[in-house]
Write a structure and sequence with these properties.
This protein has helices at 2-16, 23-33, 51-60, 90-101, 121-142, 159-169; strands at residues 41-45, 65-70, 80-84, 106-111, 143-154, 170-176, 187-195. The radius of gyration is 16 Å and the shape is globular. The chain is built from 6 helices and 7 strands. The chain is an alpha/beta fold. The protein has a 7-stranded mixed sheet with strand order 3-2-1-4-5-7-6, sandwiched between helices. Helix 2 packs parallel to helix 3 and helix 5 (121-142) runs parallel beside helix 6 (159-169). The two termini are 25 Å apart. The chain is 38% helix and 24% strand. It has one domain: Rossmann fold, CATH 3.40.50. The structure holds S-adenosylmethionine. S-adenosylmethionine binds at residues 19-20, 22-23, 46-52, 69-72, 86-88, 112-115, 131.
């Protein structure tokens, strides 16, 4: 199943000129949630090879902008400022983001960030959740009140705690599992909607919705 889904989307990405199969995940989520519109400022974490940045840059148009960060190099894209380095590097990489965005408020953070998968379940789970926690920290310091966050996580250890942190920062949190993600069993996207002006003290214990 995994092979089949992967293969289909890889071929489709080639045909349509997208840099990654992941592009289809963002296209599908955006179709449903209308996250990205013209004029927006978007931050894309874990952006290489650039499928998500490509989609986001096209949608925000010339009146908007995308700031993309990745450990690995990324070929240039129109309307995208790329910063190479780790999202954990506060002094250098995040400082560059701060300087680049200047007084522009960030409307949306998208993060498809993942570590190199070791194949050791618990290790990979811990790494993915650590990157998600870091994404949330960055989001908390850049995102405008009312803005949204789309972040990849794995369901497993640390997921519930992360969800509580998301709920403290956003008025609503929902799950998204796009078609192109079907072959990747525990991968899921969390969408935080409408960043609160002030983080809630304790997150409400509500059931998680995919609506
Ligand atoms: C699944 S890929 C992203 C694909 C991308 N969304 C696209 O559509 O082309 C995950 C990326 O996360 C990056 N990454 C992993 N750890 C990182 C870190 N600490 N800082 C920045 N990027 C990181 C990897 O280098 C990799 O390129």
């Amino acid at each position: 199943m995994r092979e089949h889904v992967n293969d289909f989307y890889v071929q489709q990405a080639k045909r349509e000129g997208y840099r990654s199969r992941a592009a289809f995940k963002l296209i599908e989520i955006n179709k449903r949630d209308r996250l990205i519109v013209q004029g927006m400022t978007v931050v894309d974490l874990g952006a290489t090879p650039g499928g998500w940045s490509q989609i986001a840059a096209g949608l925000v148009g010339s009146s908007g902008h995308v700031y993309a960060i990745d450990l690995l190099p990324m070929a240039p894209l129109r309307n995208v400022t790329f910063i190479q380095g780790s999202i954990d590097d506060d002094d250098n990489v995040m400082q560059q983001l701060r300087t680049a965005t200047g007084t522009r408020g960030v409307d949306l953070v998208i993060s498809d960030i993942s570590p190199n998968i070791s194949g050791i379940g618990l290790v990979d789970q811990a790494r993915v959740m650590a990157l998600a926690e870091r994404t949330l920290e960055i989001t908390a310091s850049y995102l405008k009140p009312g803005g949204n966050l789309l972040v990849k996580v794995f369901q497993g250890q640390g997921f519930e705690a992360f969800l509580r942190s998301m709920r403290a920062l956003f008025a609503e949190v929902v799950t998204r599992k796009p078609e192109a993600s079907r072959g990747r069993s525990n991968e899921i996207y969390l969408l935080g909607k409408r960043r609160r002006a002030v983080a809630a003290a304790a997150a409400p214990a509500l059931p998680l919705s995919s609506k």
